[in-house]
Design brief:
The protein is globular, with a radius of gyration of 18 Å. The protein is mainly α and 224 residues long. Helix 1 runs antiparallel to helix 6, helix 1 crosses helix 8 and helix 4 runs parallel beside helix 10. The protein has one domain. InterPro entries: Integral_membrane_TerC, Integral_membrane_YjbE.
Length: 224
């Protein structure tokens, strides 16, 4: 298997793990009032439909990123997403309500995933660089990890804060690579090849530094 292809799959799986942690919380909140048998159905049906929708949205995003300069805009958005992940300025999960019926729970899971999955869709589309096979393979590989491992990942991220920095770094690196793959700037990057590695590295260092400083300022304010 081609090394770049394998690395891209690992990047997509890593992105799905980092950004898929909230899925377990959404599923738990939406289905917590259902009987045990219906709860399991809601989990598998809701997660299955959400994954299908996410694959379709990601494929659409892959094609949309071909539009001139949209890849560059997507890179900037993904940088903000990686910063928000690091500083905890993410989605408000408290608004997810428990659903009284199976179909209501499934509906909640799917719609919440669509709303909260924008960062995931954008990041995966950027990491795939137009390769639909990568999108599908990456998501398929990450499905069991997200479903059965996301709660563990959330616990580990809360316990070991360095993992949040690692995840944010992966997203920032993806954003940097997206910027260097902008078609309208191809000739510029061919003339300045050092920027093809320099921009992703700068994106990672910039986001991690900004996130660290923001977190330190927030801690100081909390102690005052």
């Amino acid at each position: 298997m081609d090394f770049d292809f394998l690395m891209s799959i690992l990047m997509i799986v890593g992105i799905d793990i980092v950004l898929g942690g909230d899925n377990a919380i959404v599923i738990a909140l939406a289905s917590r009032n259902l009987p045990e048998t219906q709860r399991n159905k809601a989990i598998f049906l809701g997660t299955g439909l959400a994954i299908i929708v996410r694959i379709l949205l990601t494929i659409i995003a892959v094609y949309l990123l071909v539009i001139p300069f949209l890849q560059l805009i997507g890179a900037v958005l993904l940088l903000f997403i990686s910063y928000n992940l690091l500083t905890g300025e993410g989605e408000d999960l408290s608004k997810i309500q428990a659903s009284p019926t199976l179909m209501a729970a499934v509906r909640t899971i799917v719609f919440a995933d669509i709303v909260m999955g924008f960062d995931n869709v954008l990041a995966v589309a950027g990491a795939a660089h137009g390769n639909i096979i990568l999108v599908v393979l990456g998501l398929i590989v990450s499905i069991p990890i997200i479903i059965w491992g996301s709660k563990l990942i959330l616990v580990l991220m809360e316990k070991f804060s360095i993992l949040v920095y690692v995840g944010s770094g992966i997203l920032a690196y993806t954003a940097g690579k997206m910027a260097t793959h902008e078609e309208r700037l191809a000739s510029f990057f061919e003339e300045n090849t050092f920027l093809q590695m320099g921009i992703p590295a700068a994106a990672v260092l910039g986001v991690l530094a900004a996130g660290y400083i923001a977190n330190q300022i927030r801690l100081k304010k909390a102690h005052n």
